[in-house]
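Chapter review: from sequence to fold.
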Amino acid sequence: MNRREFIKTSLLASSALALSSCIRGGFKTGSDTQKAMEMRTDSHGTAVSLLGYGCMRWPTIPPQKGQEDKREIDQEMVNRLVDYALENGVNYFDTAPVYCQGQSEKATATALLRHPRNSYLIATKLSNQNGDKTLSEGQKMFENSLSIFQTDHIDYLLLHNLGGEEAFKERFLDNGLLDWLMEQRKKGRIRNLGFSFHGAPAGFDAILNWHEKVHWDFVQIQMNYIDWKHAGQSGSWQGKRAANAEYLYGKLAEKDIPVVIMEPLLGGRLANLPEGPTQRLKKREPELSVASWAFRFSGSFPKVLTILSGMTYMEHLQDNIETFSHFRPLSEEDKSFLEETARMILNFPLIDCTDCQYCMPCPYGINIPRIFAHYNHCVNEDYIPQDSTSKDYREKRRAYLIHYDRIVPRERQAGHCIQCGECLKHCPQQIDIPKMMQKIDRYTEKLRRENPAEI
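The token string follows.
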């Protein structure tokens, strides 16, 4: 099938799906009295749910003692989540060969293959950032994804986790892999070709400049109301090199390229805010969840195609479906209100870890994501004691230390980090992990000695 025939077929399929959905109440029409899933349209006319399912955080079965690094996916729960999502209009599912320690594609496919192929859209990635970067290995990875999903095409294929021109050249240009992927798109085996980006503006511009030759069908960026203007200002980025989402989105909108949003909740941080920002949002919209503000922010921009959310639990999925089925874009006044809220949140020294697990396993057994999750949890719950003379110092100190020992075994805590730096090349957030491990360990040891904290 050539590209012209594919576009024609996609338009026909999209129209048929839209008609069917209107009959079922799946799309909004002028006569609808009930709200339905908000939909956007890609460059081929395909209807895409504004809420996309991010399959990086599937629920897992509790591991046996001593095997905490081995997470087995709870397939029965995944099936239930996928069924509920499809029933409520979610049709975009985003996975990758490296997600969930290599289990995500299989788990996602197992759940989706129980449904008609035209009821869902598959987004997966060329995750060739580690190991062999040859053409044959890239081809093998792509063919393996097709095999897992038992399909003859991938709806949205991404060059995964690009941060600059050098990696782009090494992984996709010099080996001829990008040319091969473009050929697969002509054959209809890839419906949309794009990339996901983590990095600085110069790197983004260099890759985007290939648009004339490649014709990027979509691009995936990290965007939320913190990263809109303040990417890299929470203290974790090396040299504060992150590109503001405002810049990335603006460049894509100029070229009329559809945008897929990752980390709309900034690794869950914007769903679990400290008390002050939480009360500020609740006072303005008492009936809405804190998370809904972040989703509405990203969805208020017209070039946004879908917003990914890693919904591990049914209550998260249900709340998000409520937001996107009764979708209300933000007003300019709302956006200004969120900008003020963002500045308030930045006063809290959180670590920008999104629990992607790319840094794992640590060769020395350090549970990096759990350590960061513990620290961020204590910041959010105000259990970061700063002054040993304050009246609540002992209570906060005790809460911090007990929670740390409870969720991270002593032998996997920050004090055992040897500063090898192996994790640095894997972190898409570019967190200086060894430095943060050192700071957390120093802070924790001071608490254990009941000394004032100076972090």
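Two observations follow directly from the output. The longest strand covers residues 154-162. The radius of gyration is 22 Å.
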